[in-house]
Write a structure and sequence with these properties.
With 465 residues, the chain is of the alpha/beta class. Helix content is 55%, strand content 12%. Strands 7-6-5-8-9-10 form a six-stranded parallel beta sheet. Strands 2-3-1-4 form a four-stranded antiparallel beta sheet, sandwiched between helices. α7 (141-153) packs antiparallel against α8 and α8 packs antiparallel against α15 (348-371). The longest helix is centred in the C-terminal third of the chain and has 27 residues, at 405-431.
Length: 465
């Protein structure tokens, strides 16, 4: 729940305003919670449905400390990418927002947060899009989610701006390269497939029953359920029960999987289905627990036949206290790490190749980002050169009074052409990608060579008058 004192969204800036802001030293940052750093009970308090990503981004920039923002919220991560010129002030604003949104003490939040700036933030989003930061290395769903983050950031109510939208677009391109130029995404590489692998691996241990003989059910009928059934079908699944609030989505799934016998039940029959199933997967968007200790006990499922609950939802659908119920074995997304370790080991070689590709894409963005710092100098250079050109043209006009308008226009074009060609070399050099130190040295040299600082001082004196 979002605190009521969060300010209203600011009006969307024009393209010129975004360009000006980008050239004033905006640096990219990321703050977030992921499965690597924060427990699920903390992550679920900050989870934002995709339809509200832009709303959250607008609330984040409302303080005025942050110029651009984009939210990425998935089962395994909640991350805020933002651009700001004052990192300390921006970090304080983001932390305050997250604390208010999740009703979390700042002290608890900071224990779970990770914070990255500059090149480290760029490298992070590249690894996220490439699937290298995922619970299951190389999984494909995160690339689609980063792509949606980019698309939302450039919508009418998005807050991506010039820098952040470019970063996210580069990240999507990097993710595509990783999947097309390496074999990192081959095999089962999604949260749903990890859930299937986990239940298959522990079936005999928990249920004293081979996985192939277990009676399966899934609560929910969204994208995660579709992926789940896809992986189950690849293991020879013949029958599964889907429990959902409505009939349409399960019926659509039944049409998509004609070789699987899908029994459809509504939520009124939930406990009947759980009672006759051996493994129940939960994958709904509910913000409340569907199954907890009390409901298991009330429905006579405590101490009976073994039951495995595999919760792949964030927020969680299965309460942590279910692990206290005799004969019930409950798992959530944080328990998939055993599967992750096995899959990661098999992909070490591909990870090295993927990181090399991501380094190229990361360097490309950083080079572009640094080129923005040259914009004010380029503008000053053009303005100074044009000022000299106009002064000289004004002097020459007295001597060229015998020329008609067409001939004077030709002289005007000639003077502009000479100036543009003279400036082409210095400006091209400024735009070149090089080290930060090299860029700063070049800017300083050109500024001194063309006496641009003198113009700044004169303009400053005029403004004070």
């Amino acid at each position: 729940m979002v605190a009521t004192d969060i300010q209203a969204p600011r009006p969307k800036r024009t393209r010129e305003e975004r360009l000006e802001a980008a050239s004033k030293g905006l640096q990219v940052h990321v703050v977030g919670l992921s499965i690597h750093h924060a427990q699920v009970e903390v992550r679920e308090k900050l989870a934002v449905p995709e339809c509200d990503w832009n709303k959250a981004s607008n609330e984040i920039i409302a303080s005025g400390a942050i110029a651009e923002a984009a939210v990425l919220s998935t089962c395994n991560r909640f991350e805020v990418y933002y651009a700001a010129s004052n990192p300390r002030e921006a970090m304080a604003a983001v932390t305050k927002y997250l604390s208010q949104r999740g009703d979390l003490p700042v002290s608890l939040l900071r224990k779970n947060l990770f914070m990255l700036s500059g090149d480290d933030a760029v490298w992070h989003i590249m690894r996220v899009a490439g699937g290298l930061d995922s619970l299951i290395v190389g999984e494909g769903q995160i690339l689609s989610q980063v792509r949606q983050c980019h698309l939302h950031s450039i919508e009418e109510d998005g807050c991506g701006g010039k820098v952040l939208s470019r970063l996210l677009n580069n990240a999507v391109a990097a993710g595509k390269r990783v999947r097309s130029e390496t074999a990192i995404s081959k095999g089962s590489v999604s949260i749903s497939s990890a859930a299937v692998e986990l239940s298959e691996m522990l079936s005999v241990q928990d249920l004293q029953l081979p996985f192939s003989e277990a009676r399966l059910a899934v609560v929910g009928a969204g994208k995660m359920t579709r992926l789940l059934i896809t992986h189950l079908a690849s293991r020879g699944l013949e029958k599964i029960t889907i429990v959902n609030r409505s009939m349409k989505s399960p019926q659509d799934l039944a049409e998509q999987f004609p070789d699987v016998e899908i029994e459809i039940k509504l939520m009124d029959d939930l406990w009947d289905v759980i009672g006759r199933s051996d493994i129940v997967y939960t994958a709904t968007s509910s913000v409340d627990y569907i199954v907890d200790k009390n409901s298991l006990e009330e429905n006579g499922l405590a101490g009976g036949k073994p039951l495995m609950l595999v919760d792949i939802s964030v927020p969680r659908n299965v309460g942590e206290d279910c692990k206290e119920v005799p004969s019930v074995h409950a798992y959530n997304v944080d328990d998939l790490k055993a599967v992750v370790a096995r899959n990661t080991a098999m992909r070490q070689k591909e990870m090295i190749e993927a990181e090399n590709l991501l380094k190229e894409e990361s360097a490309s963005f950083i080079g572009w980002r640094e080129s923005l710092s040259a914009i004010p100098t380029i503008n000053q250079l053009q303005e100074r050169a044009n000022k000299f050109r106009q002064e000289e043209m004004k002097k020459a006009t007295r001597k060229l009074g015998h020329l008609n308008d067409k001939e004077m226009e030709a002289v005007e074009r000639l003077s502009r052409g000479i100036v543009n060609k003279m400036l082409h070399g210095p400006m091209a050099h400024l735009r070149k990608s090089e080290s930060v130190e090299g860029k700063q040295a070049t800017l300083k040299e050109l500024s001194a060579m063309f006496r641009l600082e003198e113009d700044d001082k004169k303009n400053g004196r005029r403004r004070r008058r």
